[in-house]
């Protein structure tokens, strides 16, 4: 009774898996929500608030989106390294959410391009920390057998965030105006800060990175195994060690390239649909809505499927179908294809293809965190303590964060260049070829049950 009385008020629900996963899910959602929230506002911001020439809009849009991903990719490894050395993940996650608030206020205010870029830099650093610390906290909390399902839940929020950000801002900007639109992300951030203050970490006792496991097994390691932890426990050694694994490398490449193609919609869809179909920001918001809604319902079943039959088959099929529907997205509204021209079925083909891509996306999203976590835990079982006393989970998610933000960096820039030089149709055909190549690698190297 004395022990129970020393527990904080509400300890049971504040330390429950559901509350922890819910808090992490909201944090990941808002980080990716903020990435795309600005997209529909950029033409208004550049032309009306910053008085830039309209001919610069495509280039400035790609630049702002690229900066966010670049900063996140640079800061991720450092955040993962230092977070793995801290006894608690509470403080870094709280600081990262606060950084998101400050960066968002600067972006909303942005009286000049310099302030806008500074805000995006802060959002990039803070967002990277949210991703890394949040996923590591979740992985500490859950059992390995539930990894796919729980990651599916978190990735459903992540997918919804990256796509629904433009959807919400696009709809609200026309309806309620610029400043009221910004109250939505700031409100969600404040809610998550409060949830993080309430949350009490409750690491799973069988976590492979726990101190007890490492301490109990260190004296039993053979001589060769004593060498491997020394090599793999440091940040650079950790990365080099894992990147020699073809399964890990394939998962990271898939994460990078599929994220790049997904975020290409942010840089190209608003301008393409305005020029081709005459759609306004409201119709653009609806397109992003159609891309995001399926993930809310299918990410958890997709994670459950990974737990039951492995990653290989679902993701291979999904990647092939992605290739098909990107071709349809590219030809929709192109007069060289009379059956899909603007006057005939072009808008219907475009909208239907967007819905199909949104439906397929949950079977691709999350392959990086799931596969890398499984790989690291497999190595830990073989050689306990190989990645240090904390198990390296923060560095694992730093790797997946670098892969994702690397995709965010190259996606808008590459798609902007491809669209300007070769056209929207050719750009999507290139994406289709990339998906086919990724499907081949997935079939060869990813894990089956």
Architecture overview:
This is Major facilitator superfamily (MFS) profile domain-containing protein. Its main location: membrane. The chain crosses the membrane at residues 20-40, 60-80, 92-111, 117-138, 150-173, 179-199, 248-269, 284-304, 311-332, 427-446. It is a multi-pass membrane protein. Residues 24-449 form the Major facilitator superfamily (MFS) profile domain. This protein has 449 residues and is an all-alpha fold. It has a single domain (12-202, 210-445), classed as Growth Hormone, Chain: A, CATH 1.20.1250.20. Helix content is 79%, strand content 0%. It contains 19 helices and no strands. The protein has helices spanning 2-5, 11-14, 17-37, 42-49, 57-83, 90-109, 113-141, 147-176, 178-198, 211-218, 223-233, 235-243, 246-277, 281-309, 312-331, 346-360, 367-382, 393-422, 424-445. Helix 13 (246-277) runs parallel beside helix 18 (393-422). The longest helix is centred in the middle third of the chain and has 32 residues, at 246-277. The chain is globular and about 65 Å long. The termini are far apart. Mean pLDDT is 83; it is low at 206-227.
Percentage of residues assigned to helices: over 70%
CATH architecture: Up-down Bundle
The number of helical runs is 19
Number of strands: 0
Identify the CATH class. Answer: Mainly Alpha
Helix/strand/pairing class, anyone? mainly alpha
> What string, H for helix and E for strand, traces the elements in order?
HHHHHHHHHHHHHHHHHHH
Shape: globular
First-last Cα distance: 45 Å
Number of discrete domains: 1
Query: What radius of gyration results from the CA coordinates?
Result: 22 Å
CATH topology description? Growth Hormone, Chain: A
Main location: membrane
InterPro entries: MFS (IPR011701), MFS_dom (IPR020846), MFS_trans_sf (IPR036259), MFS_Vesicular_Transporter (IPR050930), Tet-R_TetA/multi-R_MdtG-like (IPR001958)
Organism: Penicillium malachiteum
Transmembrane segments: 20-40, 60-80, 92-111, 117-138, 150-173, 179-199, 248-269, 284-304, 311-332, 427-446
